[in-house]
Amino acid sequence: MKIKKGDLVQVITGKDKGKQGKVIVAYPREDRVLVEGVNRVKKHTKAGTTARGSKTGGIITTEAPIHVSNVALVVEKDGKKVTTRVGYRFDDNGNKIRVARRTGEDI
Question: Is the distance from CB of 9 to CB of 21 less than 8 angstroms?
């Protein structure tokens, strides 16, 4: 998967189109990523009490995973943030390096 944990991405389609955020978790087997502040859903959790006696539960708003095809990597070019596709190249030692297609720079 070309998007990794810690990358800055922008949503390119869906209800959160245009929003940017950092990738919190990548799920390569499902081709999904968890982006902070994007695809927020409400979860209803069962009410209960903790050991101290405080109430827990209710409605909690959290992020849900989004498909990796719906996000694009954001890189900085001339002081502006632009979206780009990701490619690969090999350095002299044979290590695989990610490359921003739009700018040609290493990521």
Answer: yes
